[in-house]
Every structure is written in C-alpha cells, then in structure tokens.
Specification:
Chains A, B, C, D: This is Amidohydrolase. 4 copies of one chain form a homotetramer. By secondary structure, chain A is of the alpha/beta class. In chain A, helix 2 packs parallel to helix 6. Chain A has 2 domains: about 300 residues, Aminopeptidase, CATH 3.40.630.10; about 110 residues, 2-Layer Sandwich (Alpha-Beta Plaits). In chain A, the strands form 2 sheets. Chain A has an 8-stranded mixed beta sheet with strand order 1-2-4-3-5-12-6-11. A 4-stranded antiparallel beta sheet of chain A has the order 8-9-7-10. Chain A starts with 5 loop residues before the first helix and ends with a helix. Chain A contains 12 helices and 12 strands. At the C-D interface, helix 8, strand 8 and strand 9 of C face helix 8, strand 8 and strand 9 of D.
Chain lengths: ~425, ~425, ~425, ~425
C-alpha cells in the first residue's frame, strides 16, 4: 500500500541536509516544508498558529533576522516568509471529514551547530549535498525525519478516501535545546489529540531494527549563565578588574565536576562559553550555555540546584554579578503499553525490519516528551520509537551520516500506524 | 607662538571619540585624518606606503571588510578608502626643503573593545559624543593623541617658513595588541629619522604634570591559542567527545596562576575566550587571546615559556590539538638622556604645567618601543613622555574619560619640541 | 536450630565497633577474632598462611608498626601478635572429616577513615561503644559482618556432628581500598572451594529485607598518584619553584570532571590529597589517592586511561614528575543462578524477613568479586547477598549506624545456607 | 679585637644544621643555645620570660609534645627542658652595670620543612652534618645566624670590662611563618631597647658583600583555612557528599591566580594542603596553609581581602563550611638613616668585605619587622642588613648551603656595631 518511491524520500532528505538552519531560524526549511505540503494539497498552519510566543525561549533576534534575510537572498518565496512571520514551524492538518480519532505525528526542523566534515569519504561531500551553511549541519537526523514526514503527507493524500478521523503532521522548530515543544504545546494544537507518535533515526541502533519504547529519556534543563564584572587595563591596573572570565572558567570546571548520582544517570555540559572584550583588558563579561540532565526529575533538579549554587559561589569568589535564565526543558516519560504493543506488532510485519526490540536506554533528552505529557494529560496515548540506522559517526559529530535506506522503513512504520489507527473498516 | 584654539583640539578629539574603530579596522578614522591633513596642505602617505603587509599580525579579514563597508555606509569618501586599501594608518611627511634633522612623532588610531558607559554622568554621554559603535570605545586616550597630532600638523603649516629639516607625523594603526608598530617600522619610514617622540595621556598621572621619561615599559608577547577537540552528543555519548573548552578553561586558570618573578614585575591576561558550538554538544574547539608581560625580556620570555608549557599540558590532559600564534610584541627601552633633559626643560616652561617629573613606573606596554628601537638602532634619539590627565576611571574602563584641557598641554609640548629641534636660527 | 543469643552478636559487634582499625593494620581486631575462634575450638590460620605478601598493595609500613605498638599497648596478647606477624587477616578451617563440599564464607576486618559522630543522639555514643580511635570508624558495617562470622563459627561447633564437608571462614583484611582479596586469593586458600558466599549489611535496603543477587558491582581501580616538583622561597624566588600542589589540584579537578559514559555508570573520587611542606615554600610534592569505577571492565578502563592522561597533562603543565601506582582492584561479577535460587528460598523461610528481592543495583565495588572470580574459575559457585538494615546515615558517613536486629537475620541466612549445603542427610 | 676562631663559628653552625627543628618545636636547639650561653657565663631567660603565650599563633600541640619527647630521647638535659616549658626561645641579658644604651640583637632558631638533599655533592652530606630529622632542614640560614649569635655572646664576655650599657641577645623561635616575633615583642623584653639590629645571610647577595638597608620588605599575612563538608560513600551515594577537597582545590587555584597589583609587588602561596579521609569517601575536610604578601600594607590587605572572598565563594559553591585563622604577620619597615650609615661605615672597614651596598629589593618578609616596629615606636633605632653569601641553591631549596666563611664576616659586623655603640670611651 506504499505510494512513494524510496528515492523520493532520499532526495527530500538531501535537500534539507544541504541547507541546515539552527533552532528558531528554520525559515528556508519551514518554507520548503510548507510549499511541498501545499503542493500535495494539504492545509498548512504556521507562525503563531502553531507557536505560542509567550513560551518561546532561547530566541536570538539577530540570528532570526539574519536567517530571514538569507532565506530571501536564497530565493525563498516572500509570501510564504510573510506567513511564517517571526516564528518558524508549521503543521499540516488533514481532516478526512469522517468521524474517527485524532492522531498527531511530530518531525523536527532544526540542525545542530556543528561544522560538517570536509572529508572526501563523507557521503554528503561525495554526493554533493553537504551543508552550504558554515558551522551548521543536520548531524542529528532531523533532515531524515522531515523527509519521512513529507512521505507520510503524500501517503495521506493518496489514501484520503480510505481513512477516518484527523491527522496533524507537526513540523516542530528548535528541538535542539528542547525549546520548541513547549510553545507548540501551548498553541493548543494537541488538545484534541488521541494518539501521538514520533520516532528518531539512529541512536546507536543498527539498521533494520526497531525499538518500540526506549526508556531513560533524561529530564533536562537548559540554562544560560551570564557574568558581569569590571574591565581594567591588564598591564597598569590589573587589580582594579573584576574578572568575569575567570569566574566563568571556574564555574565551567565546577559544573563539569558535578557528582554522579547514586540513584540514576546524570549528565552535564557547558556547550558554549564566550568571555572577554580584548586581549589587554581584564574580561568584564562572560556567557555560558549550560545543560544538566537526570534520569528522573528529582535527579535533574538535584543537578540544577547544585549547578546554580556553584555558579553563585564562583560569582562571589570573583566579585562579579551572575544572571541566569532557563532556556529549555524536557521531561522523562512513560510510554503507553497499548501503543508499544501496536508499534511492535507493526514493526514485525515490515519486511526490511530484522529485529524488533521492546526497549533500550535512550540516555538523551527530546522535548517530544513535553508534547507527550500534554497529550497524556487529557487521556491520549503516546509512542516514541527508534528507527535503527547504521551511522558513520555518532550524533552531533561532523562525520555523522545516516543509512538512507532506513527512511523508507520509518515511512512504512508511520504509515502502517496510521492505517491501523484510522483505516475505515 | 601657538596657533590653534584649545577648542579645536577638543572638537577633533570628540569626533574621533564618537566613531571608535579597533586595530586594523580604522578606515573611517584614517580617512578623517587624511582629509584633515590634506585640507591643511600636507602630503599624506597611506596603506602599503606606511605598512609592510609581511609583518602584519592579528588581522581579521572579516572585521576589515565589515569596517570598510561600514565606513562606506557612513559616507566616507570612496576615493580615500581606495587609497587606504586594506591597511589602515597614514603619515604626513612635511619637508621644509631646508637642511636639518628628521623628526618623527607618533599618534595612535585604534580604540579598545570596551562598551562605553551609558551613565548620564559620563561626560561623553552628557555632551553627546559617546561611541556610536557598540562594544568599542576610545578608552585609552588615542582620540586625544590624534587631536594633538592634527594640532601639530596645523602648527607645522603655520610655521613652515621658519623651520628646517623634515617632520613625519605617523598615525599608527593597531597599537592595542601591539601589532601596528612592527609593520610600520618595516615600511622603512623611520630609517632616516634623527629624533623620535611620542606621548601618552593619563597613565595615573594627574593633570598639569609631565613625566619626561617613564621607566618599566614591560616587554610583552601577545599569543593566540586554539584548541581543537572532537564534538559528541552530550547526552548519548559524552565519553566520545574531546572537550576543547575544558582544556581552554584549565589553561586559563593555569595561566592566571603563573608565578610572580623574584627579579621583577610580571603580568598575564587571558583577555578573550570563545569556545563550543552548541549547548548539547561536547565543545570541539576553543580560542584564547593571551598576553604575558615582564619587566625585561628575560622575565617576559620566562612567562612565555611557562605559558606555552601549561597550554601544552592542558592539551595533553584533554587529548586535544593545540595551535599557537604570536600576534604582537613590544619591548622595553632606555630613553636617551639628551631627549629626557630636553623634554624636562620644555615642560618646565609650559605655563599650565605645575609639576615636572623625571620618571615613573609605566607598568604597561606600548609598541612605540618597537619604533624607538628602530630609530635608536641607527643612532637616532628617542623620547616617550606622559602628559598627565585626571581620569574619571582607569584606562580600558567603560567610564574612562580624559581632562580635555590637557590636550593643549600635549600640543604645546610637541610643538615646543619641534621648535627646539627645527627652528631656523 | 539456632544456637546463639541475638545479644551475643550485638555484643561482639560493639566490641569491634569500639576499636576500629584501617586496612592492613587490623592487629587488635585480628587478634580478637583469633582468640574468639580458638576459644570455640577452631583451628585458625593467620599471617602469610592466608595472605600472599607478593600481592599486597596499599600497605603503609609506618601505620602497621604504629598499630602493632598500639595493640601491644592495649594489652593484646603478644604471642598472637607474633603469629599474625606483619599481615593481618585470618581463617578458621573447619573440617568435619566427612566427605562433602568445601564452603567458604567471607567477613571483613577493616574500618574506614571517618571520624565518628560525637552527637549525643548517635547510638554508639549513647550506649558507650563509639570508636576509641580518632579518625577511624566502622562506618561500613564490617563490625556487624565479623559478629555474624563469629556467630556462624559457634554454630559450626554446635553442629559439628551433623555436618559433612569442610567450611572455611575467611576474615579478610583491607576490603576498603579493595586490597585484601587478591593476596588472600593468591594464598591458595580458595582453590578447593565449591561454594562461596558473602553478604553486606545495609546498602540502602531496609530492615527485614534480603536481596539475593545484586547487580551492577562496579569494576574499579585504585590509583596512587605522586607529583614531585621543586621547592623555592615563595617570597624571594617564586619563579624557581615547580609547584607540585598546583599540579595535584588541577589533576583533582580534571579527574572530578571525567565525562560520564554513554554505555553505563561511572564513578571517580579523589579521596585524599596531601601536598606541600611549609607555608612559605613553593610545594615540591603532593600525593593523591584516587579511584575510578565503571559499570563494566571496558568503562572502568576508559576511566582509568582518561585519568592517567589527565594526570600526565597536569605534570607537563607544571613541569613536575608524576609517579602512579595501582593500589587495589575489584571486578564485576555474574552470580550463579543455582546459588541465587538457594538464597531466595532460604530467605523466604526466615521469620524476620518480610521481603525477598532477587536483585538491585549495587553501584559500588567489593573485592569479594576477586575471590568469587577465583572460585568460579575452577567451577565453584558463588553468591553475594544484601542483608537489609535501616541506617541512621549512609555508608561512610559519620552518623552511620546499623539496625542491630539484622545481625541475627544475617546469622540465620548464613547458617541456613550451610545447613542446606552440608547437612548430613 | 676579635676573640673567636672562625672554625668555632662553623662548628656551631654545623651542630645546629644537623638537628633542625621547626617553629615552636625548637627544644633541643633552645637547650643547646642556653647551655652554650650559660657555659660562657651569661644569664639566660627562656619560656614565658621571653614569650607571651597570649600572642602565640600557629602552635601545634602534638608537634610540640613529639619534639619535647624527641629532645629527651636525644639526651637533652631534662632540667633545661623543664625551664623552657612549652615555649621555645631564649635571651641572654648582658648588663655591664655601667650606664649606656640598651642594644638588642636577634637570631632565629627554627628550620624549614624541606627534605635535605641526599646528593653526595651536597657539602652537609660530604662533611657529615646533614639533617638527622627527615623532612626538616636549615635551608634558610638560621643555623648560621645562631652560630654568629653565640660568637657575639663570647665576644661580649671577652670584652665585658670595656663596654657600657646592656645587650640583649634574642634567640627567637618560629620566624618561618612569621609567628615568633609578636609574642616575643609582647613579653616586653624590647621596651627599653635603644638600638636593634639583625641580619640575614644569603638573599642572593654574593659573598664578601654587605647590604646595609634592604628595601621592599613585604607585608604579609599567614592564614589557615579549613573546609568542613560531609563524607559519603563515593560509589553508592556520591551525591550525598559535600566535597571539602574540591572546595580547597578550587580555592588553591583561585588564590594562585590572585591578580598582580599596579602599585607594587605581590605574592601568594598555598604552601600546604591536606584533605580527605579515605580513597572511597567523598572528602569531608581539607586544611590549607596560605600566605599573601604585598609591597606595602595597602597591597597586602588587598591580597588578604581578595583571598578571603575567594575562599568564601568556593565554600558556597561546594556547600561546605569555611573557617579561617590568621597565623602570622610581618610588616614593612623604614630603616633608620643613622643606623644605615653606621652599618655602611663599619662594613667598609671589614677586611673581608669587598662591596658595600646601601640597598636592594628584599622581596621577602621577616617578622623582625614586628620587633623593629616595637623598638621604633618608643624612639629606638633599627637596622636590618644582609650578609652576602654565595649559595649552592636558593633559600628553602633542598640543596641550599651557605658559604661558611661569611659567618666570620657577620660576626665581625655585629661585634663592630656593639663596639661603636657601647665601647667605653
């Protein structure tokens, strides 16, 4: 019953791969998704229709403007850019007009801030679809997720007469940094959803394997820390400075040495640190992008509170001011058994799938958990599965590359799920 | 015999103050100097006529391009920008046509990377000449030096018939970071110079005071350090990362704790640190701008070698690659007694000068020492004096401001020096 | 069939508690065990009969001498001290003379280096059996383990006519630091053992609960690191020093910030750091006691290699010499199902036991795993169980205290196990 | 007029060298001084006659007891030990009975905590007078100072009939750590003193050179810092610990990176750090011995306040308790011109002295400045001179050794000073 050629999925994926955009700046990407969906005949919501600005965090106005200008310069349709406005993301709402459940599927738009490998052995280089945006790369698989999402959109159109109920295809911005899910949830778009599903390619699971219900989604908080000190001439009056960079370096080392926890897994990272103004000036400011994670909310909060105390101590040590802001969050979640069984049953029937596994340790965070919590809170059921893919290098590494054959496996899993949930019987 | 109104000096200084440009990007500033000099009737050299590109260090191509574009956008004459080319700096060469000594005076063009105070009590805010360039500020007094230099240029024109010999007014780029002097020296422009002089406003010396020959100019080396590690997903595979930011933070703390030296003064600063790519990625790169100083070359070299060893150790600890590059240098110097006596004698005769002091501890670095060394190497004589000025805050602080009345004192000192050296008798 | 009063176990435990001795210095403790065993009629081996000196690590000659002298001063029988010699530890070998399996049980002798709480609410203070040795405390439960071991010894004597085979009661020194098991294994005492069992009180498991086969015993390596630099007068010639303490502090922070691992649990601790010679001397030496752990041997080796590289980097940074020595080790292990089932079955029949649990995450290390590996290597079967006990504070904390009622539970579990394995039928 | 053989001075020095004792534990040393002085016929005060216990700091009761016991074991006369009591130090009070000024000279008793070199090329090893006390060494020259002091004592006796006035020979304990001067001053022994003098061997000044009045005695404060956290099992419950050692390591690095000061010299050292209880316990305590210095009291106070703030910040970061205690102090001082001239005049007349220098930068601290301040406060005059000596290695290094020929030069300088001040004319 599949209606799409595997090559079409691959082509879409490569187009997304070649033009990666980081969270909240996915203007060209959102526009490409909208245009493709609308060319299939879908109705598409975007901008504040799917994003509640009150809940947007980690939004860089200058980066947004630059990206809008770049999209325009790259020939993106100005009408569509106007519809998107200042908030990326979109959703196709496919209503069969026949009574039935509401199903939401979610795909992510954004890339990571990694410089893509220039090795000639790196397939995107060989096949000429490597990132055109220096410092940015789809090194997490979201390009593949979007390709699958478009494939599903096409399948819906091709089967519109056989289906009941309603499907919402959510193309979420800013998953990296776990920022986009909350404002999408707060737009209300999930509030009538009965079934929610999403999947992730890779995750150290080999090709031709499906994991139906990974465990150990880590709760996480994303925190920006900013130290403000006092500049001084480093030669003449070093004693008059208040060294914000020294405070930030000590904080970094204090955070990296947060203790592990006897009750479960922890993670901490200082992903970005920018400090100082000039070589011969005692640095008067420094900014840090921090994240903590824990196997559950208790452990995550322990990490957060310890991290905050350490930053406060370093600020005291160096007599500088500290400001902190929470920039993103994800929670842990419990999959619904009914959905897990359904995914396992579907997966076992997919010819290309050789192994079906009930669970694994995810050991990462995904703000899909925020969407899932919203759906579960009114009685909906949710699934999060992993579509195995041999990888050339781990997620977020510059030589990351997926096994493109698995796009069709993912497409099949999603479409079979819709068939089971919505096929008119 | 003065021919300029104090107010003119102040106006020039304020124009420079309002549009600060950092080292190697002083396009609008250089253009303003050239236009003013040429409007007086001076012949002006610029670009590669005064800068030998082979010796340029700490040059940021992107910043240069942005600054050229900004200058154009701000209405700077494109013909002048064309003459300047890619290398800022200029020199008026004033030849009387009469036999006599060659005298060079040096003034600096660049600002520091400090955000100017927005306090309403800050005079540049009150009087409406605060920096229009966010993050940049003339917080070292170079704006005043240039104003004095233009005043001297006017005086030369007004006294052209009474003078012998030749005067070169050097407007040097990139003194901060001690980068501009070496390529200016290597242009050959100083190779016929018999007397060299320059001065600095402020330096913790009160208004109406002249220090004829400060001591303890610190030898210094400016070093860029760059660490290259390996990115990895901070949640799923933190153990696969090679954390370049952690290496940089440890290096920073190890540098800040370089020992003091039993034989003389030392300084060290990590002025800028940028590291990491994204919040949830183990940071794969980090860059640092470092400087060390010593009371003499031996101590400075001790500091340099210790600093390099520490960075190498941190690179080993975190299994990351280290690259370093020397970006600037200044040396210590011995003033010529003949010039010191001359400066003291002149200063005592200036009505506004209440105190004349032979020496002080400079405790800083200035690449004028590189120019001086060049002049002294062929038998020329050199002076470096301090023009006292009450300051609102120390050099490189955001509330730094000079006592503008001292501009005229500086102007008088320079012009009297020329009169003593070059007046036809 | 129990033959001992619960109060006897408690009394023994309190005697051990009042006189704690750290690893390899348990002279008074070993003597007390020997005397008690021999008073029951047991044959006891000690010194090099149970310890192979070639495999002894983490042995402090001075501490050993001090402890021998202290034991003598405290009135311990000199003849027994002579038998013990320089190596603590002993074993009762109980041979029924009748054919049957050989069973080994293991109990630990040593305390931890923790200062016991002086709070009046702390039971050992109230009941007057707190540690008489400042800085040392049975804060891990080994006092209780020994009491159980003596109870089992009494039971054996009371049932000598009904039993087959042979029982070896091993009283192992230096479990803390996982140093004592290897030299005990290398004495050969386990090489005819068919069944091995040991247990641990507490471990965050509540009273009246038995866990039959905990998982996640962490592989661990104990490493001593020593830095040798160069002393210098901190006022006159600080630049001549090579600061070993600075190297050790950086190493400490670098070790504490070892990354977590995507594939399983990790631990790292710098438990002791001693550095420097005098306040006004640049420190020329520093010693550290370090441990790393990993959920399996691969992860543990990753931690070890990263730790070593970091120490080497810090040594390079500060131009000091590094020496390292491995001081102890423990491995992970797989319990034998046959033994697990037996323990569960016995535990279910103990009246005081309310909950029997198959497994838990141990999250710690115990060098019993080294003994177990030895037994399993020739086909023997092994069990390691947890005897739950409500605790006043966690292990190694100064207010740690066990629920003494659980001593009898532990005694019952061990003796029932012997009954099942050795009762003449 | 000299009355002592140079060889006698050398023998005394070697006896002191062979048995070094650290501050407040100089029992054998004090006893040797007392016995020698009394054998010459001097009256000697000791214990609380010269030390005011209320002002004693940095006193380790256990070390005192051990040293008393060791002195007894080494055969030191018990009667003399009884007279000394618990406070080391003594003073010969030599009263001519004739009217005249009161002169005080000061010599130090204590060694430093440095392990003496075992190189066969090290003279004390070759000549068999190396330290018999492991970890302790006269590596600062105090052994030579005492030898000179005894020589002066002999000279006084030999010239008792020719002299006027009174001489007090102070043998001060605990100069290292600048602890002994304050309680000696507070005993009142200096309150009638008209002239005070002391000297130091070495200080990077070559043999046969006298420096009459060194400058840049650094003000200093000696601070003990103690962190108290919470122990926990490093494997099972690392998150429950409060890591006092981590706080101490961060404090150490933060102190070592205290900024230099634009107005003058600074020093900082963390000379000793002891932390932690056991390898597998999160460290619950750590102690540090810290010193800061500054070219003047203002700079020293700046360093002290910054150091305290940093320690407080680190305590906050790691949620541990901080206690600090000031353990010693020295001040800067201004020599009296009259005394300086006198020293220079005497030095020029000593045959073995080739160079006489008015001043030098001392760059260190000596609590003689506390004694001097006491004398100057009631109008007395003071001198502190340096007796040059070629050194085998710098002060406080394990291969430190003096040129013993300079002992006689020092002796001559002191005795000539007494002759000039006290000779009956």
């Amino acid at each position: 019953m599949s209606t799409i050629a595997p090559r079409t999925l691959i082509n879409w994926r490569r187009q997304f791969h070649a033009y990666p955009e980081t969270g909240w700046t996915e203007f060209a990407t959102t526009a490409r998704v909208i245009q493709t969906l609308e060319s299939m005949g879908h109705q598409v919501l975007t901008g504040t229709q799917v994003i509640n600005p009150d809940f947007v965090r980690g939004y860089n106005q200058q980066a947004v403007k630059n990206s809008q200008a770049a999209a325009k310069a790259a020939g993106v349709d100005e009408g569509i850019l106007l519809r998107i406005g200042d908030y990326t993301g979109c959703a196709a709402v496919f209503d069969t007009g026949r009574p039935g459940p509401v199903v939401a599927l979610r795909f992510e738009l954004d890339c990571v801030n990694v410089q893509e490998s220039t090795c000639t052995s790196h397939t995107p280089q060989q096949e000429n679809f490597a990132s055109s945006q220096p410092g940015f790369m789809h090194a997490c698989g979201h390009d593949g997720h979007m390709a699958i999402g478009l494939g599903v959109a096409q399948w819906l159109m091709d089967h519109r007469d056989q289906l009941h109920g309603c499907v919402k295809l959510l193309f979420q911005p800013a998953e990296e940094g776990v920022r986009g899910a909350r404002p999408m949830a707060e737009s209300g778009i999930l509030d009538d959803v009965d079934f929610f599903a999403c999947g992730h390619l890779g995750c150290d699971i080999p090709s031709n394997t499906i994991v139906a219900a990974p465990e150990k989604f880590l709760s996480t908080l994303k925190i920006d820390m900013s130290f403000q000190g006092k500049a001084a001439h480093a030669g003449m009056e070093p004693h008059l400075g208040k060294n914000a960079l020294a405070a930030a370096c000590h904080t970094t080392l204090q955070l990296l040495s947060l203790p592990t926890h006897g009750e479960g897994m922890t993670r901490v990272n200082v992903g970005v640190l920018h400090g100082g103004e000039g070589r011969n000036v005692i640095p008067s400011h420094a900014q840090m992008q921090v994240e903590v994670r824990g196997e559950n909310e208790k452990i995550n909060n322990f990490m957060y509170e310890e991290a905050m105390r350490r930053a406060q101590g370093a600020a005291l040590s160096f007599d500088v001011q500290l400001e902190t802001q929470i920039m993103g969050e994800a929670v842990n979640f419990v999959p619904d058994d009914e959905m897990t069984e359904l995914i396992m049953s579907i997966a076992r029937d997919i010819p290309s799938v050789e192994h079906v596994q009930r669970s694994m340790n995810f050991n990462g965070s995904d703000d899909a958990t925020v969407l899932i919590k919203r759906v579960q809170s009114h009685g909906g059921k949710a699934a999060y599965f992993v579509i195995g893919s041999d990888l050339k290098a781990g997620h977020h590494q510059s030589e990351f590359d997926i096994d493109e054959d698995q796009l069709f496996t993912g497409y099949t899993l999603f479409t079979q799920l819709l068939e089971r949930l919505l096929l008119a019987r």
